[in-house]
Amino acid sequence: MNSCPWTSELKTHLKNLVEMEPISPLPELLDVLESSEKLPEAMQPDAIRTPLERHQRQALTFMHQRELGWALNGSRPDLWEYMGNNQRHCFVNHVSNAYQEEEPEDFSGGIIADPMGLGKTLTMISLVASAAPLHNSVMDADGVVTSATTLIIVPPPLLGTWEEQLSEHVNPGSLTWCRHHGKTKFTGTGSYNEISIVLTTYHTVSAEWKSHGEHSPSVLFSTRWRRVILDEAHFIRNSSSQLTRATCEIDAAARWAVTGTPIQNRLSDLTTLFSFLRVYPYSNRKQFDADITNYWKEGNAEEALKRLKRLASFLILRRRQNTIQLPLRRDLQCAVELTGTERAMYDEIRNKTVARIDDILYESSDDTRPVEYTNILQQIEAMRMVCNLGLYYHARRGLRDLTQKNSESWASIAQQNFDFQGEMGGMQCRYCFAVADTSARLLNSTQSQQSLHLSKCLQLICSDCISKSQPIDCGHSPSCPFAPVYLNPTSLEETSLSFNHLEYVTSLPQAVKFPPKITALVTQLKALPPGVKSVVFSTWRTTLDIIEAGLNQASIQCLRFDGTIPLKERQAVIDRFRQEATPSVLLLTLSCGAVGLTLTVASYAFIMEPHWNPTLEYQALARIYRLGQRNEVTTVRFYVRDSFEQRVMDVQNSKRQMAAVLFASQDSTAGPSLASLQNLRSLL
Ligand SMILES: [Zn+2]
Ligand SMILES: [Zn+2]
């Protein structure tokens, strides 16, 4: 700490206001999938103007090899190998050591699973640029035409990211690309023949799969593509959803899945990817279970792990984050103190909340608990607001007592409840166990109109299951009322506590000081040398509003990037931040800024409040700490000392999942259990 002039200087500035502590790094999960093999480096493709890093050229080698199909002749280690002499012929499976006489179905493709920030998008663009020059489609012996075009399927917010990366890295004129999305869609087979890359979204694939038929044939499903690439492929982890089934139906000569998190919750996440890849025999979940998962279940974890490692070494490329030499990164947490008045306000809400939980623990019935629970979550949000906004938060304007409403009002608070639970770790569909969490939500379309249904006893039913199973039920008899809820990413950045903060901010006398977090942030930004750029993340726009006011007062210019900026203007904001010397501060909401953006022009990142789900914070930090970063990086997380926020940080630092703490013994049908309420109480 003392070796850093910036923080030590800061410490003397703000002796009692700010105290910085370094955070110990989290261990890299998914270690078991890591690739150890030293791959040779492929040539830099002519069409790519950005010099590729070593690990990217190695990835190219891996992908070129995998696109040749199985190495049956043993030229390199592979899943399948031909063994034979004059008497016998067979094919050996090097994962299970089983053999068969029949030649295994060929397979071309694999999983690129490098962690965030290693330049996977450029790597995949290089594959398209290097594997085969653009030529006309090829017809095979069966009369099936393979187009020369690569189809890339991405979550909606990443369409722009891909186009931007293509423009940035590809030599003009050497590759062509276009969107198949929204109003820009092609019809008729072969209409893409002259184009190297077609970009589309999972939702387009899903929608066209449904309507595809004789009368309205879809180009996506009547083409055999040169290759198909899934970006953020964990998007299809729910194997029974329409979106997943549609994506798996895409026909292509080579199939690639790109994801930083090939395993999110369970080993079975991998089997969904294998079934997309159509890799024999592990596209069959039963075979995967028989050869790997069952060893685990039978207590032979060592053998299961060995087999999984072997399988991964053939099909999955995953390198460590430290494969690339990024500049040093310092992670700091910054505790701030509330002032006397703020503390009193905080304590008042806190004590009310605790008393309320105690009431529920002793008095409520299963019937009223969910509504009470929403009330409590709302009060916790109020506590978080005080931590961010201090006296700018005006409690009495905001809090509505939800229990005062009659039972018909479930529809009016269901979304709020869903948002809270999504933030804390997600909810699972009662029928198919699909997870609806914040990470999934951020990759969703901003205009997603598809609803899920949440029952008053907090049972969730996903949109796929709603269309398949009517009537839906929660498990109670008679069934509790259901209300539609939406996976709309931007609703997260609005606080549910409805009050007109802008009006309130402007009505405040000048004498009211900015809240301590904002003061600490402004002080730190002021102390930065000129030319240094910073990004500031908060969950809520309200916080960004007050920060903006604080920065204005300190004559620091800033840019905003949040859900109120129209989609078509967002790129201009990012371009300006990257290209112009000022403003040097970019304010972002987590829901708009945590995925897809490359902000390596900044070397400081500030996160205004701890999040229930730390993954979201890592995603946000990866915007600046990634390939292309040339400067030392400092990340600062703010929290209020001796508050609920500090407890949340403690849980995060102990590497436990907040969801596991909160929903430890949640009964699958009874909504929030008493135990989870007790756990929640312990955080307050
Ligand atoms: Zn479902
Ligand atoms: Zn129920």
UniProtKB/TrEMBL annotation:
Keyword set includes Lipid metabolism: no
A GO molecular-function descriptor: hydrolase activity
Boundaries of every Helicase ATP-binding domain copy: 101-280
Alphabetical UniProt keywords: ATP-binding, Hydrolase, Nucleotide-binding
Domain of life of the source: Eukaryota
Family matches, as InterPro entries: Helicase_ATP-bd (IPR014001), Helicase_C-like (IPR001650), P-loop_NTPase (IPR027417), SNF2-like_sf (IPR038718), SNF2/RAD54-like_C (IPR049730), SNF2_N (IPR000330), SNF2_RAD54_helicase_TF (IPR050628)
GO BP terms in the entry: DNA repair
GO CC entries: nucleus
All residue ranges annotated as the Helicase C-terminal domain in the record: 517-669
PANTHER family hit by this protein: DNA REPAIR PROTEIN RAD5 (PTHR45626:SF22), TRANSCRIPTION TERMINATION FACTOR 2-RELATED (PTHR45626)
Protein known as: Uncharacterized protein
